[in-house]
Specification:
This protein is an alpha/beta fold and about 160 residues long. It has five helices and seven strands. The strands form three sheets. A three-stranded parallel β-sheet has the order 4-5-6, covered by helices on one side. Strands 1-2 form a two-stranded antiparallel ribbon. β4, α3 and β5 form a beta-alpha-beta unit. The radius of gyration is 15 Å and the shape is globular.
Amino acid sequence: DRAALVVFDHAIETLQPLQPATARTKTALHLALNGVDVGGTTDLCGGWLAGCRELATAQDADGQSAASTRPRRALLLTDGQANVGITNPVELQAHAAELRQRGIGTTAIGVGDDYDQALWLGSRPACASRCPTASTENSSIPFPPAAKARRSPST
């Protein structure tokens, strides 16, 4: 397994590039997530595509593309409020279909009470996405308050 971490609001930041999911990487991801805080507006498409770019450029230990040997899936935790960058659901769905053709799937997990599920439901057939919703209340999953999160200045 491999993991990367990209956070986004109006800006996009790769906190952890794609690498093997060793114990050290998992610890680094956990620490990085502790520093994620609510940010500004949401460049949902830019953040999502940055994560997918990590998957698209993945290589195996022998330096060959991992595209044909490994399943590749982006996990997108989002409030679904695309309000910066590409915001048109049809364009987002076209990106999802193209990524799926390239072997990169997406699971979008809605966070918050105002999650825009309609934004992603239209992309489900195109990208084989799963679109569960995680409530920020009554949940044991430690999600940031919203996916439009950034690293806090203290980290």
